[in-house]
Amino acid sequence: MADLTRVAEQDLMKSSVEEADKPALVAEPPANLDDNSSSSGRGCFAEKEKEDTGGHQPKVSRNRKREFEDDSRKVHMGEGHGQTVAAHYNELQEVGVEKRSESRIFYLRNFNNWMKSVLIGEFIDKVRQKKNSITVLDLGCGKGGDLLKWRKGRIHKLVCTDIAEVSVQQCQQRYSDMKVRSRPSERIFNAEFIQADSSKELLSSKYDDPAMCFDICSCQFVYHYSFETYEQADMMLKNACGNLCRGGYFIGTTPNSFELVKRLEASPTNSFGNDIYTVKFEKKGEYPLFGCKYDFHLEGVVDVPEFLVYFPLLEEMAKKYSMKLVYKKTFREFYEENMKNEEHKMLLKRMKALEQYPANDHSSLASDKPDDYEHVEELMKNGKAELPMGTLSKSEWEATSIYLVFAFEKQL
Ligand SMILES: C[S@@+](CC[C@H](N)C(=O)[O-])C[C@H]1O[C@@H](n2cnc3c(N)ncnc32)[C@H](O)[C@@H]1O
């Protein structure tokens, strides 16, 4: 998906103190957005699950095998959408703090960033119980949006890699700036930067130490680009998990295929969305396991081709690399669970991950459509909330609730 999280984390750190004494920003997401119990749309995948994975083992038909072989040829010929994706991310401009705060999706970006912070923090804590010197692979690092999270986690070594060369350069620059600005007493992690297409090239040969073993591979909003072909998805998995230490974690965020198909099936056309995002499929009703392309458009960003990731298949494929699923949660589930933790709730405020409703005298709401906040009014009517409260506009909830959070653990 397009870069939903680019927020200058420095700004977030700075805002922590002044935000602390604002009114409690506790909100519930609009109730009807991602009700996974609904059968609409899920049916196609439930059937697919039986048909293609036999519950767990994917059975690949002869035609499907032929498809894989054709895809494989494409990979070796360097075809596919990787270059389009790289070009898109290379062209994305870094925007200043002021411009960013004016963005219609300011809170959505912050919210997604909070989700990543909590996820990353959780797994750093898990590893830290076993060892102190933590090594991380940030696969699809972009412009380095997570550098401050690694700094906060006091890791020892980071390898940043991305298909987009300009992004890798900007990430490296951000790392150097961070080092220069840090206190002399603070030990900042060592870092290595690699431009590579992780769905087509083996990363290990590019590391300073090819035998490097990672405690965490973090793949935030990236893995779905690899589901163009089986070979690409497998190569990205190999890069993510092949060099993990025993007990290491592969964590990430990716669109939830059930949610995408559910919304598509409910739409009268081949697309769905709202005023800030649009997802456009080529057709409805047929969802191949690989190469099921859709175009994702986000406010102020051009279309990027992405691919549906059928999660039960990813879970199966990961077994090849001795990976066991620890959990898979929708953004909604993850948010609701983590909001029970006071520290995470405070972080949500500090990161400005929710907007205050109603706006105060010095601010205006992100959306000027009154029905974008009807879920808050509904909560109020039912006596379930007090104003002012923290929320996202309905359009932003709809965009963020497409995603899921996952974590795998290396068994051997
Ligand atoms: C939505 S951005 C996320 C960036 C970063 N992970 C974050 O959360 O801020 C997706 C990133 O995946 C990268 N990407 C897409 N396909 C890739 C591939 N085949 N190999 C490596 N990186 C890829 C893009 O260049 C882009 O930087």
Automatic annotation (TrEMBL):
Residue span(s) of domain MRNA cap 0 methyltransferase: 103-411
GO MF, any single term: mRNA 5'-cap (guanine-N7-)-methyltransferase activity
Where in or outside the cell is it found? Nucleus
Which segments show compositional bias classed as Basic and acidic residues? 1-22, 45-54
Enzyme Commission number, as recorded: 2.1.1.56
Q: Which reaction is the catalytic activity of this chain? A: a 5'-end (5'-triphosphoguanosine)-ribonucleoside in mRNA + S-adenosyl-L-methionine = a 5'-end (N(7)-methyl 5'-triphosphoguanosine)-ribonucleoside in mRNA + S-adenosyl-L-homocysteine
* Gene Ontology CC terms: fibrillar center; mRNA cap methyltransferase RNMT:RAMAC complex; mRNA capping enzyme complex; nucleoplasm; receptor complex
**Cleaved signal peptide residues:** none
Q: Which family does it belong to?
A: Belongs to the class I-like SAM-binding methyltransferase superfamily. mRNA cap 0 methyltransferase family.
This protein's name: mRNA cap guanine-N(7) methyltransferase
State the organism of origin.
Crocodylus porosus (Saltwater crocodile)
